[in-house]
Amino acid sequence: MDQVADFEQMWRDLTPIGRSASSGGYFRQPWHAAELELRAWFREAATARGLEVEEDPFGNLVAWWGPAADFAATGKILTGSHLDSVLDGGAYDGPLGVASSFAALDLMRERGVRPTRRLGVAAFVEEEGSRFGRACLGSRLAVGATTWADAAELTDREGVRLGDVIEGPADGAGSTMLDGVATYVELHVEQGRGLIDLDAPVGVHDAIWPHGRYRYDIAGRADHAGTTRMEDRVDPMLTYAMTALAANKQARVQGQRATFGRIDVRPNGTNAVPSHVTGWLDARAESDAALAALVGEIERQATERAERDGTTVTVTAESVSGEVAFDVALRDELAGRLGGVPILPTQAGHDAGILQDAGIPTAMLFVRNPSGVSHSPYESAEMADCLAGVTALADSLTGLVTAQVTA
Predict the structure, then answer these.
(1) Coiled coil where (predicted)?
(2) Mean pLDDT value across residues 43-61
(3) Residues linked to residue 315 through DSSP beta bridges, in sequence order
């Protein structure tokens, strides 16, 4: 099999799915048409390779190489990523890792690798949190970090409950899909400029910055945009605007990250002072203490401004993930096997972080993004770098699936 042609064909098959004709970005939200088409593609790719597909009650998929009876129930190796996207996102965030996993498996077979440990290719659902607002929801459910009772009540922007979209486990129990998994390796497109600056096609991540999503509910009083004097208004938009500016300034001063990227305004009329503004803050920092300091200062300034505006502000932490350090021995083993590639942290959250936190030793490979842009139609990767990533992943997995289990 021509590995280059096979990977390029996979990418041609994936490229049009969920792509916007106007922006060129991708809309692959979980359990909508484009993401369901990608799930069908995953099953077809697995079937074409003779892999056994397993789906857990939450929609997570794994394609296993070889029947379970041929391998020990423990010591399994898992690779993969996710298929969903942010709203108007890029082509590579998620699907590159899944397609590369299938291509790496193909390359291993071509090389004559005979695994002694079972290998699976995973596609975790709702990694971005773009529909139900909980990042890495599928992997959180798979490891038990989030309960089905909690997740079932999550709603999307149209008010649809997750529990009305999928049935979930009939008995309320969790997933058994990851039972026996000893190691997880995820390949991902880089979401920054680290490899550009180092002129390297492939690298290894060593940690994920702590990060969180916080909902700011700001209440005021609806009024007429024309007849109400400026000094008589109780305008929550003013409180929100100052808070967004404060977040930007504090992140810059402290060397961290803070973004208000989503807002809901009510009644959302052009000629009315709003009665309520909800904004969602995404905050990330180099340590748990730095994140707490950043979020605390933004909330303090929002509260002070609300007092001046006569509004009220309520802050709710919708999800917070602490710092994740990937398995050091596994990281060094992979970096060494790949010839001493760069080792860098990432400010982006990943399913790999959820599995590492759950006690599964995890490593991440990443492929250079020449634009340095992600979560955007401008996200990109060169085919030569993608193929270098496939080779690096195949080399990494070969060492893992042929290693002796010492339990």
Answers:
(1) none
(2) 97
(3) 216
Given this structure, which CATH class describes domain 211-321?
alpha beta
**Helix residue ranges, H only, 255-287:** none
Q: What angle do CA 228, 231, 232 make, to 5 degrees?
A: 50
For 348-365, what is each residue's pLDDT tens digit?
A: 889 999 999 999 999 999
In this structure, of 25-39, 274-288, 335-349, the range with the lowest mean pLDDT score is 335-349
Does residue 213 have a known ligand-binding role? yes
Report domain extents, the chain. 3-209+323-401, 211-321
Alpha helices in 49-166 (DSSP H): 95-110, 137-143, 148-151
82 is in an annotated binding site: yes
What pLDDT does 404 receive? 60
Q: Which top CATH class is 3-209+323-401?
A: alpha beta
pLDDT tens digits, 307-364:
999 999 999 999 888 899 999 999 999 998 898 899 998 888 899 999 999 999 999 9
Pairing of strands 276-284, 202-208: unpaired
Instruction: Give the residue carrying structure tokens 């898992």.
Output: 78
Judge contact between 205 and 268, C-beta under 8 A.
no
385 is in an annotated binding site: no
pLDDT at residue 124 greater than cutoff 80: yes
Neighbours of 402 (CB within 10 A): 14
Amino acid at 132: F
User: Is there a binding annotation on residue 284?
Assistant: yes
128 is in an annotated binding site: yes
